[in-house]
């Protein structure tokens, strides 16, 4: 009896899968930047609710994967959050769909509120090793950075310029773990996506400019990177429709209300 | 009819056994195939003994990570082995069997806790304690060693207990009859007789410690840095692969596979040293 039930449910599941596959949906795959991935998922859900005939799959993998898979055709749309697109992306059609600020963050116990770009560079290069050198208390600075290859890290290093990260900097592999590390260590400094700031950490002003949505849109805050969607060849068909949806006021509103900045 | 099914079962079991071995072979071949060309291209000496790891500049030196892996493993041994062996001795020699039958499975439950949870406790509890009392960033070699030391406890304890309990009763009775105290019996008879099992338990623990990834990524801080004190942050070979794999492309990706090759070799060397050590003791006995 039990066997029969198992068999029946097995057949049922298989037929469900086959039935679903056979519906002839247009499918679009996005891959790349982990910073944009949650936004892409939300936008895809909204788009699929309006256009049930389209199936959109969103994968992560990082900006490098985004460029690579758009080139190879593994994904129709690659996502990349880089200041400068690499050589391989020259042949791709790039659309800026959002902007993201990179906030320099410290522990809330830290009295410092502002750093200059030069000070940020010297801290991450290991030239400044104590908070008192930038006007804080007498305590060693713990630098927290991202792993090599991260889009946030390469954007940060390109914008600040001439960064040669000091050897004993702690390395964390996501925005979230950077936030936890900085929240737990009173002497640490790190950087993360502007959308992920919360009350456990304190964003610093850079060159007297606050890291806020208004300041970024006004073009005053310096550490901003664009988020690109990369497509091989020209924009057409469902892919164009989807990107147009992201750029529409509805799509941009979703991006804005979840912590990123609209493209324009 | 009976004979056929007998043969069929044998063949089926053989296929199962070989699929396990071939999985190991395939993994080894795959890692070597992906990693070895890089080592030849880049130069083994440069790869192993340079301490510059800057993938974006094309510099791949894993010396700091080899050193870190060995230190973290040694640290885990220093924490886990004495605790584990002492615990096993206490449980098997001093505690009534009924109590041990409750405690031993409880300790073995430690092995069922996912490594992320160990890492989480390390980040939330251990790292702040180290930072506040000893200085440094907290996420350090020391934190990694302590967490790994605790993670290998169940392996060390349960295998040690099994080998201590396997010592024949008559050995202990003989020793006690000669007037030895319990402790004298333990360290002169029981430990000597179960030495190979205890060493095997420590080696298995070591295998777990050097291969552990998640917990180490979370508590060791991951800076590519040759440690000068236990409070320095370090990156192990396993952490290097796991941290950068998701973003790596081209030469960088190959370098990570090459890191895997080196890790593979380090583990094979450690295991062979260990099994030679066991065999020697067995022969002596």
Number of strands of chain A: 12
| Morphology of chain B | globular
Distance between the termini of chain A: 63 Å
Query: What number of structural domains do the residues of chain A give?
Result: 2
- Strand arrangement in the largest pleated sheet of chain B: 1-2
Strand residue percentage of chain A: 15-25%
* H/E series of chain A: HEHEHEEEHEHEHEEEHEHHE
Overall shape of chain A: it is: globular
Number of domains of chain B: 2
Give the biggest beta sheet of chain A.
Answer: 10 strands, mixed
Number of helices of chain B: 12
Question: Which sequence of SSEs, written as H and E, runs from N to C of chain B?
Answer: HHEEHHHHHHHHHH
CATH topology of the largest domain in chain A: D-Maltodextrin-Binding Protein, domain 2
Question: What's the CATH H-level homologous superfamily of the largest domain in chain A?
Answer: Periplasmic binding protein-like II
Structural category of chain A: alpha/beta
Helix content of chain B: over 70%
State Rg of chain B: 23 Å
Q: What is the overall number of helices of chain A? A: 9
Largest interface: A-B, 27 and 30 residues
Runs of chain B with pLDDT <50, length 5+? none
Oligomer: heterodimer
Write the layout of secondary structure elements.
The complex is a heterodimer of chains A (264) and B (285).
Chain A: H1 2-21, E1 26-32, H2 37-50, E2 54-61, H3 63-72, E3 77-80, E4 92-106, E5 114-115, H4 117-125, E6 142-146, H5 151-160, E7 170-172, H6 175-184, E8 188-193, E9 202-203, E10 205-206, H7 213-217, E11 224-232, H8 237-247, H9 249-257, E12 261-262
Parallel strand pairs in A: 1-2, 1-3, 5-10, 6-7, 6-8
Antiparallel strand pairs in A: 3-11, 4-8, 4-9, 4-11, 4-12
Chain B: H1 2-42, H2 44-49, E1 53-54, E2 59-60, H3 63-94, H4 97-109, H5 115-134, H6 141-165, H7 169-177, H8 182-193, H9 195-211, H10 214-220, H11 237-244, H12 250-284
Antiparallel strand pairs in B: 1-2
């Amino acid at each position: 009896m039990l066997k029969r039930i198992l068999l029946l449910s097995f057949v049922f599941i298989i037929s469900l899968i086959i039935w679903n596959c056979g519906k002839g949906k247009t499918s679009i795959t996005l891959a790349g930047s982990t910073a944009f991935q949650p936004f892409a998922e939300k936008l895809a859900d909204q788009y699929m609710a309006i256009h049930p005939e389209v199936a959109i799959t969103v994968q992560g993998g990082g900006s490098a994967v985004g460029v690579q898979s758009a080139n190879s055709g593994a994904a129709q749309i690659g996502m990349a959050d880089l200041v400068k697109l690499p050589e391989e992306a020259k042949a791709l059609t790039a659309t800026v769909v959002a902007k993201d600020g990179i906030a320099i963050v410290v522990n809330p116990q830290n009295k410092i509120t502002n750093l200059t770009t030069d000070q940020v560079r010297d801290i991450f290069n290991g030239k400044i090793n104590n908070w008192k050198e930038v006007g804080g208390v007498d305590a060693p600075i713990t630098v927290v950075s991202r792993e090599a290859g991260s889009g946030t890290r390469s954007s940060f290093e390109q914008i600040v310029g001439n960064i040669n990260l000091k050897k004993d900097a702690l390395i964390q592999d996501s925005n979230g773990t950077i936030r936890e590390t900085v929240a737990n260590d009173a002497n640490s400094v790190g950087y993360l996506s502007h959308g992920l700031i919360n009350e456990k950490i304190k964003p610093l002003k850079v060159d007297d400019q606050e890291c806020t949505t208004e300041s970024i849109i006004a073009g005053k805050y310096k550490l901003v990177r664009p988020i690109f969607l990369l497509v091989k060849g020209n924009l057409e068909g469902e892919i164009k429709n989807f990107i147009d949806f992201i750029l529409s006021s509805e799509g941009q509103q979703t991006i804005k209300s979840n912590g990123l900045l609209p493209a324009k | 009819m009976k004979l056929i099914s007998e043969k069929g079962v044998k063949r089926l079991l053989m296929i199962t056994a070989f699929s396990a071995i071939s999985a190991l072979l395939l993994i080894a071949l795959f890692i070597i195939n992906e990693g070895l060309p890089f080592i030849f291209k880049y130069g083994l000496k440069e790869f192993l003994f340079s301490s510059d790891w800057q993938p974006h500049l094309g510099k791949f030196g894993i010396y700091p990570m080899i050193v870190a892996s060995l230190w973290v493993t040694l640290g885990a041994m220093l924490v886990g082995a004495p605790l584990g062996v002492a615990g096993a001795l206490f449980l098997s020699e001093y505690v009534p069997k009924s109590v041990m039958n409750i405690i031993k499975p409880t300790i073995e439950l430690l092995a069922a806790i996912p490594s992320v949870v160990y890492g989480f406790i390390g980040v939330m509890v251990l790292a702040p304690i180290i930072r506040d009392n000893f200085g440094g960033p907290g996420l350090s070699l020391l934190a990694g060693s302590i967490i790994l030391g605790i993670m290998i406890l169940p392996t060390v304890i349960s295998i040690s207990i099994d080998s201590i309990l396997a010592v024949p009763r008559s050995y202990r009775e003989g020793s006690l009859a000669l007037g030895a105290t319990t402790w004298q019996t333990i360290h002169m008879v029981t430990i000597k007789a179960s030495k190979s099992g205890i060493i095997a338990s420590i080696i298995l623990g070591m295998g777990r410690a050097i291969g552990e990834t998640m917990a180490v990524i979370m508590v060791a801080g991951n800076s590519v840095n040759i440690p000068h004190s236990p409070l320095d942050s370090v990156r192990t070979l396993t952490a290097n692969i796991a941290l950068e794999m998701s973003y790596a492309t081209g030469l960088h990706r190959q370098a990570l596979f090459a890191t895997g090759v080196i890790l593979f070799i380090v583990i094979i060397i450690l295991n062979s040293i260990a099994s030679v050590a066991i065999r020697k003791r067995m022969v002596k006995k």
